C-alpha cells in the first residue's frame, strides 16, 4: 500500500492534530483554475488533496458539489483531467487521492485506472458506491499498483456490517458525518463522533470525517475525535461566489489557513 497517507496521519498524530483534506472536482471551474485552487489550498495549510471525478449522476453529493461537477462536465472534464490534476497536486507535495463513483472507473477499465493513478503518483481511491461484495478485482489491482482503498462508512452501517467494510479499507476510513448527501451544514451532526467511536472498535486505521465541515470551529470539533477532517463544499462555494481569480484564490487560501488552525492542538 502507499506510504504517503500512512506517513501523513503518523506525522499529524505526532503533532497532536488531525489531517486537513481538501476536496475539489477536476475541471472546476476550469482545469487551469482547478490547478490554481489546489495550489491555494495547499499554500493555506491543507495536508492532502481529494480530487473528485466529475460524474453525471452523483447521487451521494449535495447541490454544491453537483453543480461543480456539472460545470466541470460541461467543460469536458473526464479521466484525463482527473489524472492531470492529481499529478499537479502530487508535484506540490501533498498526498493526493481520487474520489470516484464506480461507474467511471469500470468504464475506464479498473486495471488501466489503477495504473494511471499510480503513474500520476496518487495515494489511493475513495469509492463511495462500491460494495465490498463486488470489490475483489478492485482490491487486487489496487494492491498491484500500491494504492490505498478507502470506503465510506455511514451512521446507518450496522454493527455486523461495519467490520466487514473497515477490514477492506487501507490508508484511512471515510466516516460520513451526516446521513445522505454531502455539503456544508450550519453544525456538524452529532452522530459523527458516535460513528467514529464505533469504527475505532473495529479498526486501527485512521478515521477521517467528511460531509459537513465548513468553519474553523467545526474543524476543531471534529478534529477532537477524528484523525482527519475533509472539506469540499466550503471551498467550492467560495469559487462559486467569488470566481477563481485573485479574490477567490485568496479566500480559498484564507479558509484553508483557518481550517488548518482549527485541526491543531486539539488532541
From TrEMBL:
Pathway given in the UniProt record: Amino-acid biosynthesis; L-tryptophan biosynthesis; L-tryptophan from chorismate: step 5/5
Pfam families: Trp_syntA (PF00290)
Keyword GTP-binding applies: no
GO molecular function, one term: tryptophan synthase activity
SUPFAM superfamilies: Ribulose-phoshate binding barrel
EC number(s) per entry: 4.2.1.20
Substrates-to-products reaction catalysed: (1S,2R)-1-C-(indol-3-yl)glycerol 3-phosphate + L-serine = D-glyceraldehyde 3-phosphate + L-tryptophan + H2O
Keywords: Amino-acid biosynthesis, Aromatic amino acid biosynthesis, Lyase, Tryptophan biosynthesis
Classification via Gene3D superfamilies: Aldolase class I
UniProt keyword Lyase present: yes
Any Gene Ontology CC annotation: cytosol
InterPro entries, A to Z: Aldolase_TIM (IPR013785), RibuloseP-bd_barrel (IPR011060), Trp_synthase_alpha_AS (IPR018204), Trp_synthase_suA (IPR002028)
Protein task: The alpha subunit is responsible for the aldol cleavage of indoleglycerol phosphate to indole and glyceraldehyde 3-phosphate.
Database matches in PANTHER family: TRYPTOPHAN SYNTHASE ALPHA CHAIN, CHLOROPLASTIC, TRYPTOPHAN SYNTHASE, ALPHA CHAIN
Subunit (UniProt): Tetramer of two alpha and two beta chains.
Protein name per UniProt: tryptophan synthase
Organism: freshwater metagenome
Lineage, uppermost ranks: unclassified sequences, metagenomes, ecological metagenomes
